[in-house]
Amino acid sequence: MRALPSHACATLQVEINQGLSFAADAAEDSLLRAALRAGIGFPHECSVGGCGACRFDLIDGDVEDLWPQAPGLSERDRKRGKRLACQSRLLGDAKVRVRCDDSYRPVIAPRRQVFQLTGRRMLTHDMAELTVETEHPVAFLPGQYALLYLEGVHGPRAYSMSHVADGSGRVQFIVRRTPDGAGSGLLVDRLALGERIEIDGPYGHAYLREQVGRPIVCIAGGSGLAPMLSIARRAAASMSAPVDFFFGARGVDDLCAADLLQELPGYGQKLRLHNVVSTATEGSWQGATGWVHDEVDRVIGERAGDYEFYFAGPPPMIESLQELLMLRRQVSHEQIHFDRFV
Ligand SMILES: Cc1cc2nc3c(=O)[nH]c(=O)nc-3n(C[C@H](O)[C@H](O)[C@H](O)COP(=O)(O)OP(=O)(O)OC[C@H]3O[C@@H](n4cnc5c(N)ncnc54)[C@H](O)[C@@H]3O)c2cc1C
């Protein structure tokens, strides 16, 4: 195997067990992103080391492990020599074993560009809508996400686009500040307008299937609002399918979906919002309380098989919805699309 000489900006050759091979730009930050940019259906989900979907075996060659403690690999995986493609940087030609699948091929080839932060408005006490702009038109499908490379923050952070691509270079995200969060804290509180951000995308398979005529259910947990908003915005503007939009928030202070959805065509009729609060204090909230998946089941129930489901949010919400829809309600996996915010 050819190792990469220190001065080279070479093209590397990656062989995959299924007889597939591709040329990778040595400047790529990870095997996963090199493969996706080459149009290979390399399995993946979060792209940031959290989920383990891009596990592979290195048969030959050398890679640098960008995040040796990444939670996407268990101790057992590590002992068996497994690696994460999203955390492996190629150091030369390589031969890898992984089961590729066309469903993972990017519908829009991801591109890395420099943007400028041009707008920030607080939606709640801890959630901000950010606007960034670049000179080239940006393409993505409603529901997809991008990777943001932030100065002083180790590793990229995934954030979903919250608007609809309009042929311009403008992109919007909704970011929730997490306790001690390096990336979200910078984006919500400190990054000054005019600052540059390198953004790579689009990624993700939980995008709106516009050709499917079924009624739509969007379920957002916390900052999972961003991709669901993008889907609802597109569906409201150009599809006849009705949308039931469930927003699960912790407290009444976190409810902000109505402000964002009410300007859309059909709000209150074709587009129905169901707010669910998990920690309401007595008397402060007259609406639904509890877990958002229970409310989905209460409203949709036995009719679940008639719908196309999209959801995004924290892992426990994703697991509860998978159990509800796939096991209890027997909804076909082709009707279920989600992103786990690991
Ligand atoms: C597909 C997807 C879409 C998402 N969309 C949104 C969204 O629209 N809005 C939103 O608010 N949040 C979103 N998230 C969550 C978001 O990416 C961050 O995890 C969250 O903002 C916390 O990041 P932080 O930097 O503030 O916290 P931190 O605690 O500093 O970092 C948390 C995350 O950073 C990564 N990380 C940490 N250390 C390292 C390291 N050494 N090397 C590499 N990576 C590291 C890990 O992925 C970890 O989960 C999404 C997540 C995923 C997977």
Radius of gyration: 21 Å
- Poorly predicted regions: none
Give the strand tally.
17
Q: Can you give the mean pLDDT?
A: 94
Q: Please list the strands of the largest sheet in the order they lie side by side.
A: 9-8-11-6-7-10
Bound ligands, each once: flavin-adenine dinucleotide
Largest sheet: 6 strands, antiparallel
Proportion of residues in β-strands: 25-35%
The ordered string of helix (H) and strand (E) elements is: EEHEHEEEEEEEHEEHEHEEHEHE
- Count of helices? 7
* Portion in helices: 10-25%
What structural category do the secondary elements indicate? Answer: alpha/beta
Distance between the termini: 35 Å
3D architecture notes:
With 342 residues, the protein is of the alpha/beta class. The chain is 18% helix and 32% strand. It has seven helices and 17 strands. The longest helix has 14 residues, at 225-238. It starts with 10 loop residues before the first strand and ends with a strand. 39% of the residues are buried. The mean pLDDT is 94. The structure holds flavin-adenine dinucleotide. Flavin-adenine dinucleotide binds next to strand 9, strand 10 and helix 3.
